[in-house]
TrEMBL record:
Record InterPro entries: DUF305_CopM-like, Ferritin-like
Superkingdom in the source lineage: Bacteria
Domain DUF305: 48-189
Signal peptide: 1-18
Protein name, per record: Uncharacterized protein (DUF305 family)
Organism in which the protein naturally occurs: Mycolicibacterium fluoranthenivorans
Lineage, top ranks: Bacteria, Bacillati, Actinomycetota, Actinomycetes, Mycobacteriales
UniProt keywords, alphabetically: Signal
């Protein structure tokens, strides 16, 4: 048994020695997607700030409406769209929060109290949605979500045209593509 063990050690030592004389393999090429938040300076202008604060309000309303759909709609396509909206906008909202903190030098972002973003739903519409079910809910939900999406598209276009922050510009372009596709889907569902 000792002889076999000794022979095994000799074989391992020989193979390690042979490996060390070979040319080392090249280092793997690293690839990564560009982060949403870059390491670039957090410079911003008034367009960026308006984009961020108004977008946050509209996203929070869209998320609130999306969470109503599973218990109020019997349309599986609408519920699936609502889940997509909630997930996507929550992720975007997290990014916007980081940007707003950067632009405010660490201060907590907040809009002026009582100031609604252009295109935001009034409390009466939100309250009505919370009380509806079935087809009535679906119709008002689609109309309301279309309004929110169109408002966000306007915000994104304004940011692209006049914003300064690279991360906000990148987010606006991404949002523009996503919302336009969802608007088309909702328009087809409204029929």
């Amino acid at each position: 048994m000792r002889a076999l063990f000794s022979m095994a050690l000799v074989a391992v030592a020989a193979s390690v020695g042979a490996c060390s004389s070979q040319t080392p393999a090249p280092a793997p090429v690293q690839t990564s997607a560009a982060p949403v938040i870059t390491e670039a300076p957090a410079g911003s202008n008034a367009e960026d700030t308006t984009f961020g604060t108004d977008l946050m309000q509209l996203q929070q309303q869209a998320i609130q409406l999306a969470r109503l759909a599973p218990t109020r709609s019997s349309n599986s396509d609408l519920v699936a769209l609502a889940n997509t909206v909630a997930t996507g906008q929550q992720s975007e909202s997290d990014t916007v929060k980081v940007l707003l903190v950067q632009w405010n030098d660490g201060a907590s972002p907040s809009a002026a109290p009582g100031t609604a973003a252009p295109g935001a739903l009034d409390p009466a519409t939100v309250g009505r949605l919370e009380s509806l079910h079935g087809q009535e809910f679906d119709t008002l939900w689609l109309q309301s979500m279309l309004g929110l999406h169109r408002a966000v598209i306007d915000l994104a276009q304004t940011e692209i045209a006049g914003g300064r922050n690279v991360d906000a510009q990148t987010l606006a372009k991404s949002i523009l593509a996503t919302r336009q596709a969802q608007v088309q889907q909702m328009q087809q569902m409204v029929g």
